[in-house]
Amino acid sequence: MPAANQLGAPGASPIPPKPSAGGLAIGALVRGILAFVTVWAPIWGILSGGGAAVLGFLALRARQSTGMSITGIVLGGLALLTSVVTTLTTMATLMSPASGPTPVALPTEPITEPADPAAETFTMPDLVGDNLQDAQNELQALGATELEQADATGQDRSQIVDSNWKVCSQDPAAGETVPVDRTVVLSSVKNDEDCSGQDPEMPGIGDAVRVGDLELTVKSVDRATKLSNGFSSKKGNWLVVKVKLTNKGKEQVMVNSSDFNVKESDGTTYSTDSDGMTYVDSDEWLFLKDINPKTSATGTIVFAVPKSVKDPTLEVTSGFLGSDSTEISLSKP
Fold this sequence. Notes:
- By secondary structure, the protein is of the alpha+beta class.
- It contains 4 helices and 15 strands.
- The strands form 5 sheets. Strands 6-7-8-13 form a 4-stranded antiparallel β-sheet, with no helix packed on it. The protein has a 4-stranded antiparallel β-sheet with strand order 11-10-14-15, with no helix packed on it. A 3-stranded mixed β-sheet has the order 2-5-3, with helices on one face.
- A hairpin with a 2-residue loop joins strand 6 and strand 7.
- It is rod-shaped, with a radius of gyration of 56 Å.
């Protein structure tokens, strides 16, 4: 009976070695798992899956772990196929045109509403007798943009506080259709004056004239060519005006010589001569002088004027920022 074949015995067949795990098999398995997990990523799945399959085949040829190699090949192959589909789908989506035609922006012209002719005009209201401030407010509400005001007495006084004046005449007349940019002129007098005498005779020396809360009377006017105070004298040409002031209001009023000016008919104006005032008795100075209600004060004002001055008038202002004013003729009767 022949002897059994044994390892090392003559004529015995060698036993093949058991395959080891090996680095290629492990790499194929790991790469296959990563490729399968990240199969959703375009391109990356192709590279990882393909790499896992290649490593799996190389591991089999090297007789490394069959299980790891085949698992790597299977996972890598699935990842490869899936990633190819995902990549193609993504590229098709990105390259395909948006659904529907692309709108084309056309140049547009701004739409201009036609002007309403009625909005550019208004009907002139009857403002005669109205308070000047109220009349102006009404015109502005109607759209009027050009407003002018005038002294109806012809004295060319400034209407600083419009609420202290009333309308005597208007241009355009009431009822006219007026363009909003036409100049509207309102002629007015002070609230306590009468429109019926729009050009009254100017008050003169000795007439009591109301200026705000003050009642003013020019007592005398003298032309002087020499001023003297007992210590010195000065030659020149002056108008020396003496006035009486009575406070008719309920509060103290402050008067200053700067509230007075002499005016010629051509509009030339002369202010108080401060140097000439030094020749006046200090009791007659009107320098920041306070006058209590129901009391009076007298004062002297000196104006340096040329010899040729004709028909001079005394211009007096009172109230806040000179809101009240009047003129008195200094020509002797």
